[in-house]
Amino acid sequence: MSSSILQQPAQQLPENLQTTSDQQWQKLQEGLDAELFEGLKALPHAEKIIVCSEYVVDSMLRFPYLLAEMLEQEWFTAPLNAARMRAILQAKLAGCSTENDLHRALRQFRRQMMMRIIWRDFSFTANMWQTTAELSDLADICVDEALNWLYDFYTPKWGTPYSKEEEGSAPQPQRMSVIGMGKLGACELNLSSDIDLMFCFPKHGQTQGGSRSLDNQDFFIRLGQKLIAALDVNTVDGFVFRVDMRLRPYGQSGSLALSHNAMVEYYHDQGREWERYAMIKARIIAGDLDGGNALLEELNSFVYRKYVDFSAIESLRDMKSMINREVRRKGLFTNVKLGPGGIREVEFITQVFQLIRGGRDTELQERSIRKVLPIISDLGLIPQGVTDELLEGYLFLRNAEHALQGVADQQTQTLPEDDFPRLRMAYIMNFDNWQDFEARLELERAKVSKHFANVIAAPEDEEEQDDSQSAELGALWKGEYDPEGGARLLQEQGFEDSESTYRRLDSLRCSRVVQGLQREGRERLEAFMPMLLQAVTESHAPSQTLERTLLLVEAVLRRSAYFVLLMENPSALRQLVKLCSASPWIAEHLAKTPILLDELLNPATLYTPADIELLRDDLRQQMLRLPEEDEEAQMEALRYFKRAHVLRVAASDINQTRHLMKVSDYLTFIAEAVLEYVLQMAWKTLTDKYGVPAKADGVLCDPAFVIVGYGKMGGIELGYGSDLDLVFLHDAAPQGVTDGDSKGKKSIDNGVFFTRLGQRIIHILNTLTPSGQLYEVDMRLRPSGNSGLLVSSVKAFRDYQLKEAWTWEKQALVRARVVAGSPEVAEKFAQVRAEILTERRDLNQLRDDVVSMRIKMRDNLGSKPDATGEHTSFHLKQDAGGMVDIEFIAQYCVLRFGDQHPELLQWTDNMRILETVEQVGLLTPDQVAQLSEAYLVYRQAAHDASMQMVPSVVPADQFTEHRANVTRIWQSLLESR
To answer: Glutamate-ammonia ligase adenylyltransferase repeated domain: from which residue to which, for each copy (predicted)?
Structure first.
């Protein structure tokens, strides 16, 4: 037991237990020879164990030779790990020639180990976790060794089972796997527990080499029956473990042993929610471990859904209700397992989080409560203080359970009613009296009950709902209103386009998809829709908001667990409505990736985007959960990471908690974190295959490669739908090769290596997966554009910029910066950039090139005049006086004056370039203020347009003053001669 949660042991035996102690010692003195008796009395803690465990005393008197062996081998005091216990049992089984011999050896071994385990548990020599681990090891060893003995004993008679011959392969011998469930599966078995088992075997076939051939299934059913008898039958020596097989597929009516294929087919086609709950703890404990573990891996998708699965809470709530009814019917309120605040409630709390989130947060796929509870708090699902209290309560309750069971090796969890067993139990638990123990027990149960209610109890809205309103909206959804009455009801509820909204709802309700839903999905939709309709009435434009939200509803019709998530979390539903009301872009974002609904559960993080370091850490933590070799899973995780964090930025944006510049910063940070990780992924893939390329000096590089961001990425101005303008550079030896040959890999030219590296990066970013595309990548700004090499060396890049690049390419270089890769190569790029941007130029040619390019862009991309020749609209980016004019002004200043003012090269974003332009006196403070203000106003308007999914075009009469100011400065700087 864990002394940390128990009272200090009593200094002496309580007076009311002294008589019992004297009687027990008297019986032992009379029943044992003098040497054994003296050896027993000399054991530490003997006084307490003798008075508290009738089972230990009875075992010593009935089987003194077992006690003699234990004293001789010092098993009461010396630690016995699993390997040592297995060796002891194997030695005992070596002399067994009949099944009766097997039964006797198993039972006597189990009795010795149980005497030892109870001794250590009651004396606090072992804590509760050590006790349950030893008990689980004991069960594993007994089952495995008994199975091995029986297999070897019966294969000469029944034959050895072999798989069916498959074309091109020889039949393989088959062995059975034993699956441990419940507390055994979790390695947390209690002192007198039955063991829940399931039997399976790899493939169908026939036995060979026996007196007659059997089907493999028949063989393993027989073997399973023999194994159960070896463990469960009560003989003169007792039993080993009570075996419960009711958790197997189809329960008691199902076959005792199934093939792996039959198991998979059953769970994926017929598995029920409670079986998911049970399979959380499934563990292969005996027999064919490799084959069994492969089966459990295949069943993992049945247990853990890939999405956040709030449907699990319904089934757990139903299970708990059923248990509560049993508690009331049978009067089990004093049961420390099933009663209020009992062991089962702690198990339910942990498993509800595992079933809901275990498919995505894979670290929750853990059998042990001791390990799972801290993970739950680490993930921020419940506070650490709560998990600490649950663990403390669980420890106390499990210790109390052991104190009940270790007395007589009985499977009981019910508190005693008589004075003597109460006093004995308090003494085992190190309390001076029953009243003190009971007070502590009630305190722990009250804490567990409170936390259980917070997690499992049915949700209640924070505000009282208008039941009549909800009922009417529910009737509307069910089609009980005609079009006129339905539209009138919606109008009364504030829907601005009630007739259209009614038609939209009616169309959805009558759609083939909705009509084809299974019963469970249909029931969930019918429960959810009135809640949604009521929630959207709180928005400023309910019809518009509902239309946007229905995109999500239609996306998840066949994944109704999402409806449960929103019904279980009314605050998340309110956040959904708020976001969809504010932006159709967010509504579409959520509809494309419904798993993001999980983000709505925590407003604290939803409205607080992470900075670059937190993003890197979050991405690293997410990727640590995935196998390195599973690139598909990593690509999906990257897409979820990006979409989740972009949603947080958008939420804080519409909540007006972030300035526009900060929004762009955060969106750029997300892209940087993704690019850094994608580069690592691609580098590992390529170097694993080809080895590492060499640098110009012959030193291997790790990696001499950078990703350069241009445009909005380089200028730290990404928007929600921005693509990434990228250029790839390397600094490896031009004639070098990778070191693959020295490591048994294929060696390739450095140039080929880096081209494939670039292709790999683009593949990871561009590929459409079930979660969509990570980023769209534009590589046209690389040297020679689409006709140029995908990856250039730093030297080749410099040569191109000096000898061949157009003026517009040097303008683009103003906004270029390294966003991922080698710091050493990044420094070389910075030097090349500075050299290019400060080179001496023909100033007239520079001005002509910039103006010519601007006119060409304006003519091709700007707004067009109407039939009368008038411009009725203003394109925020491309028209005269717009954003691109301001960007060109900043770029022209860098190219024109960079050689005189190198500080102009420091920044890549327009706002800070303009600030530097003012600092060095190239434009007046008023001019810079006018440009900066216009740029921010335009960007905000364009940003708002993207959120509303409309073009960046406004009526011509808007922003006239800003346009005039920008045009005036443009003309004074670039068109005056």
So the answer is: 48-294, 574-831
